[in-house]
Design a protein that fits this description.
By secondary structure, this protein is α+β, with helices and mostly antiparallel strands. The chain has 12 helices and 15 strands. The radius of gyration is 22 Å and the shape is globular.
Length: 383
């Protein structure tokens, strides 16, 4: 293992060329922040606030990085308990209450507390136990219908989970039409205490995350019968952006290395696995927070990667991937089960038995990831 630090440094440089150097990544994020700030008044006048999310928002410019956006009506305010209703002006604001009882962790019902002037919301209302709720299924269907009508013949739009996937002139974008809460949900309050105990993220990042609250996206907890429920899933996309932005560059490159590993190794077979890049991000978050003694420096990049990989294997073995904000929410609940779980574990354990060095190759005395064709950015082999 004496060669690992040197190999790590070379892979660090190769990943910088492929993913971006610290200054490049910072500029990408700042440009996105500036564009959003400039366009926000325009979008609000059109009836929606908007936020870019996903890999590109985090600073990646990988070949597979699609565009991801979240849209929500700015005058609709989701609250976590009734005491927060006094913070808003009625009728200027439409107040919606989260109800999480008798639902899987991370999901909520949305009770309409005051009348809404939004036709999209009003056409998505259903009655239950003499109360009025917003149906996630109806809302998602309504927004998809509007997106298809607005796109015309130049744009196609299909449903993809909670999103409307738009294909415009060959470029895909996932648009999640959601609702915004400026309050941190009660079920995620233990996360704050855990962060303070583990000293990650830093206090200023933690305060900003709590202040920003969360979103709720229109997807039901019942994948077998999504049309029957009115529950929505909590989304911490903005919090995740801030956590990724708070990483040092070695941590960010380790996250990028895991994304490439997923694409080029785990999903390289004809039958794509049940894993997605969100699980890779979750692994990195847990490792950073729980292993305070790990050195996130260039010469230790491969050991950081290996630690994340081992945690992923243990999750697959147990069939449990705890959500970073709500650990009771097992994100493998319906995806990594049965034969899928067995096949995935066998694949990952086989890779583990080969050792970390087998993931990399030497070319002209340069060590590069065997699964990353870095030549699309720069010809590493000739530099």
């Amino acid at each position: 293992m004496h060669h690992i630090p040197r190999m790590s440094e070379v892979v660090y440089v190769g990943m910088c060329r492929y993913v971006g150097y610290p200054t490049e990544v910072r500029i990408r994020r700042e440009v996105t922040d500036t564009v959003e700030a400039v366009w926000r008044p325009v979008w609000i006048r059109m009836g929606f606030d908007r936020m870019e999310s996903g890999s590109r928002r985090e600073g990646f410019r990988l070949k597979t990085s699609d565009l991801d956006y979240m849209f929500w009506p700015p005058d609709h305010k989701v609250i976590c308990d009734l005491s927060q209703i006094s913070l808003y002006r009625i009728p200027q604001h439409t107040v919606i209450l989260m109800e999480c009882e008798d639902l899987p962790p991370g999901f909520t019902r949305l009770k309409l507390m005051t009348p809404s002037g939004d036709q999209n919301v009003n056409s998505s209302l259903i009655a239950c136990n003499n109360e009025i709720y917003i149906s996630s299924f109806l809302y998602r269907a309504k927004m998809l219908e509007l997106q298809q009508a607005a796109g015309g013949i130049a744009m196609s739009s299909i449903q993809h989970g909670p999103c409307a996937t738009i294909n415009h002139n060959g470029r895909e974008a996932d648009c999640a039409y959601c609702l915004r809460s400026h309050h941190w949900p009660n079920i995620a309050l233990p996360w704050i205490q855990r962060c303070q105990l583990k000293n990650w993220p830093p206090d200023y990042v933690l305060s900003s995350i709590i202040k920003d609250g969360c979103h709720v996206v229109p997807i039901s907890s019942s994948l077998l019968n999504p049309e029957s429920g009115c529950d929505w899933r909590m989304s911490f996309s903005r919090a995740e952006q801030q956590l990724v932005n708070s990483m040092n560059h070695c941590q960010f490159l380790c996250y990028g290395l895991l994304k490439l590993f997923l694409k080029e190794v785990i999903n390289s077979t004809e039958n794509e696995s049940c894993l997605c890049s969100y699980f890779m991000k979750t692994v990195v978050f847990w490792v950073i927070q729980n292993d305070n003694h790990m050195a996130w420096v260039p010469e230790n990049l491969l050991m950081c990667f290996w630690t994340c990989f081992k945690l992923l294997i243990s999750w697959v073995h147990r069939g449990e991937c705890p959500n970073f904000f709500i650990p009771q929410n097992n994100m493998f609940r319906v995806k990594v089960v049965g034969q899928n779980q067995i096949a995935l574990f066998d694949q990952l354990y086989g890779l583990y038995c080969k050792g970390i060095s087998s993931f990399f190759v030497k070319s002209n005395n340069k060590t590069i990831p065997v699964y990353a064709d870095c030549r699309q950015n720069t010809d590493i082999q000739n530099r």
